[in-house]
């Protein structure tokens, strides 16, 4: 990549949109005429929680908020709720910027040791700095399943 002057597609905010998408598609199939608001609200709460978590890591490790890059996949849940996602972030005081502006943040030029694919560069920096009690970044259903199950979603 470096020989061709390509950069990494690093992200600062990792989330479980893939898991929410699996649950959303199954729920929607079982409840095609149901109001999607409860699912939307749970998804937005998840994304807000993940953003707050990773911004907290940014503050802890870098002593500032970075220009965040949120990992979202092209999937059914984002197709259904992307306008709501954008509105939620804006309502919470976030500013949406072009990728070029976000990737101009010095964070994304940082080389870290523990950066497996798909994980937040902030998580990797925190791990490298010895921050304790990091939430595992794979964001699997260990965290989200109980929440969605409790909501009947």
Summarize the entry for a quick read.
This protein has about 150 residues and is mostly helical. Helix content is about 50%, strand content about 0%. The protein has helices at about 15-30, 35-60, 75-90, 100-105, 120-130, 140-150.
Descriptive notes:
This protein is an all-alpha fold. It has one domain. Helix content is 52%, strand content 0%. It has six helices and no strands. α2 (37-62) crosses α3 (76-91) and α2 (37-62) packs across α5 (121-128).
Helix content: 40-55%
User: Which residue ranges are poorly predicted, with pLDDT under 50 across at least 5 consecutive positions?
Assistant: none
Order of helices and strands: HHHHHH
User: Number of folding domains?
Assistant: 1
Q: Whole-number average pLDDT?
A: 90
N- to C-terminal separation? 42 Å
Main pleated-sheet profile: none
Based on secondary structure, the structural category is: mainly alpha
Rounded radius of gyration (Å):
16 Å
């Amino acid at each position: 990549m470096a020989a061709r002057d390509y950069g990494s597609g690093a992200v600062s905010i990792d989330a479980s949109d893939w898991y929410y998408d699996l649950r959303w598609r199954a729920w929607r199939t079982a409840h095609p005429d149901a109001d999607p608001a409860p699912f939307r609200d749970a998804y937005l709460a998840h994304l807000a929680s993940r953003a707050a978590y990773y911004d907290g890591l940014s503050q802890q490790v870098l002593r500032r908020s970075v220009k965040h890059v949120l990992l979202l996949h092209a999937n059914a849940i984002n197709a259904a709720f992307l306008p709501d996602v954008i509105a939620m972030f804006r309502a919470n005081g976030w500013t949406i910027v072009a990728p070029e502006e976000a990737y101009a943040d010095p964070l994304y030029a940082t080389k870290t040791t523990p950066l497996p694919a798909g994980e937040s560069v902030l998580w990797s920096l925190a791990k490298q700095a010895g921050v304790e009690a990091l939430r595992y970044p794979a964001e699997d259903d260990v965290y989200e399943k109980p929440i969605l199950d409790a909501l009947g979603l």
